[in-house]
Every structure is written in structure tokens, then in C-alpha cells.
Amino acid sequence: MQYNYCGRSGVQLPKLSLGLWHNFGSVDDFGTATQMLVRAFDAGIVHFDLANNYGPEPGSAEENFGRILRTELQGHRDEMFVSSKAGHDMWAGVYGTGSSRKNLIASCDQSLRRTGLDYFDIFYSHRYDGVTPVEETMEALIQLVRQGKALYVGISKYPPEQQALAYKILQEAHVPCLLSQYRCSLFDRKAQKANFQLAADAGSGIICFSPLAQGLLTGKYNNGIPADSRAAKQSGFLQTSQVTAERVAAARSLQKIAEERGQTLAQMALAWVLSDPRVTSVIIGTSSVAQLDDNLHTLNHLTFSSDELQRMDDIVANPAISF
Question: Which secondary structure element, helix H or strand E, spans residue 266, and what is its range?
């Protein structure tokens, strides 16, 4: 495994991190989830990305992670970097969502109980909710560090103005933002243009989710929607309406470049996100050990020629492709 430092900190993360957004919930096969998590750890993927509402059912990914940790990886906690987040809908009532101090503190306590951990390596504000003052949310994150419930803090999906304010508040409290988490892929470059440099200038690392555009950049949908795909699942995040003709055509064209490079489309798409020097790590989501191993081969070829990058830019230039 290859590792990068997070911004201006002393923390290193693997270039590939394992996300438990999909395939680790109560509706998924626990045996497969266990195999993937153990294989990832053995391969040097020591960063596991959670959130309080990951499942479904919400909370079940944290519960399953804790169960696997206790039964298969007991004694290895200090070799891992475990994250969780709060801010999206989690439980009924007005306090079970949003970016308030009330929600973040309660959510972190619940997440620690579900995982069985004493602390998180990093706890994020999962979103800016558009209502709660950024000062209140950041004060909650600072409180979690002061209480020993998190070693570091981060933000996820914050718009630029609120992102910059969050960095300022955290820096003044001497609890700097370790990581900023944003969606980024060949089909979604908005954060790369709007948020990445703000994070880099503030000394925050950047970690990217959905680097394969929910599977569109794997080639899986090049010939229709498979029955076992995310788009075909009732609980899946990718909607069938998002599998458009323009995106499928772009994926097919990109796949030709990947084949010339001796890579799968997924490997090339992951390598493209990692080619930005501001990016610390990319979160992968896998449904099998074979898929996990395929993603690991990304690290064998991370560089691009200027011609390859230009050809890829030309392919995804159509605004209809962007998420």
C-alpha cells in the first residue's frame, strides 16, 4: 500500500480507503462484508470510513464494523484510522438530523456505542445544513476532541464560504481540520474546481468519495442495467434515470483509453482522482473481495501523459455528463 500525509499534519492515510456506505448494512451479506474488511486491512487499507446513517438500516454499518473488529481484527485497533460522521437524517424527530451541537454530540455518542470504540480517529460534520451557524457546528466538533471522543475533526460537502469559515474557527481553536471530504470523479469535478484549493491552502487533506460515479465508471452499465447493480436495487443511491445515454457513451470512450493503459475503467478512474496532488485518499466501495482486489491494482499505474488527460477531458466536456 502507498500512503500520503493529510495536508500539513503528521497523519498518513492509504491512497485507497474503504468506505462502508454500501454493502455493509443489515440488508447485506455479513460474511462477504467480513471478507472484504479483513482483506482490505491485510492489504494495508487501514482507513475505514463510516457515518452514523450508513446501512440500511441506518446505523447497521457501524454495528457490523464493530462486530467484525471484535471477532476478526481484535487487537489491531491502533493500526487503524476509523472515521464517522453525522448530519444527515438518522432518527425520528427534530434532533435526529442537521448540524446542531445537539445532533452531533448525541450522534457521536451513539456511533461509539454501535461500533464499540472508545474514540474515533476523526469525526466529521457530514454536511452544512443551511441553517445551523457554522460556529455552532465547529464548536461541537471541538468539544468532541476536548472530550477525547475524537482525535481529529473534518468537514464533508461544505460550500466554499462555509468551508473557509469552518477552517478559520477550527484553526483558532487549535483543532485544525484534518480532512475535507468531497465527491469527485471524472463525471463530477465541481469540488475539484470550487473546494480543493481552499482545503490545500488551509492545510487540510482531501479525501474523495464516489470516485466511480456510483459504478458508472466501471463499465458495468455499458450494455444496460444489470440485475445485481446499484441502479437496480431499491435501496441503491444510483437511480436508473442517472444511467443516461451520454454517460454510457462517455464511459465506453474512457474504457478505450483505460485498455490502452492496461487498466480497467475503474482503475483508471481511481487513478485520475489520485493524480491531483491535493488529494490524500480516495474512498472505494466494493461489493466483493474480487472487486476490492481489482481496485488495489490501481496503484500499479497512477501516472498519466498529457495526451491521455486531454483525451479524457474532451470526453467528459459535455455538461450533460456531469452529476
Answer: helix 265-274
Sequence-distant (6+) residues with CB within 8 A of 39 are: 289, 292, 293
Q: What is the C-alpha to C-alpha distance for residues 282 and 13, in angstroms, rounded to an integer?
A: 10
Classify strands 81-86 and 3-5 as parallel, antiparallel or unpaired. unpaired
Please, which residues bridge with residue 123 across strands?
Answer: 84, 153
Q: How far apart are CA 126 and CA 154, in angstroms?
A: 9
Q: State whether the Cα torsion 165-168-170-173 is positive or negative.
A: negative
Do residues 124 and 85 lie in contact, with contact meaning Cβ atoms separated by under 8 Å?
A: yes
Residue 220's pLDDT is what?
81
What is the β-pairing status of strands 150-156 and 279-284?
unpaired
Residue 47 pairs in a beta bridge with 81
Task: Report the distance separating Cα 215 and Cα 21, nearest Å.
Answer: 13
The one-letter amino acid at 119 = Y
DSSP state of 188: B
Write the CB contacts of 36 (distance below 8 Å, at least 6 apart in sequence): 18, 23, 286, 288, 289, 292
Question: Residues 21-42: pLDDT tens digits?
Answer: 999 999 999 999 999 999 999 9
Q: Is the whole model's pTM more than 0.90, yes or no?
A: yes
Domains of the chain: 3-318 (3.20.20.100)
How far from the centroid of its chain's Cα atoms is residue 232's Cα?
22
Read off the pLDDT of residues 240-262 as tens digits, 9 standing for 90 and up.
777 888 899 899 999 999 999 99
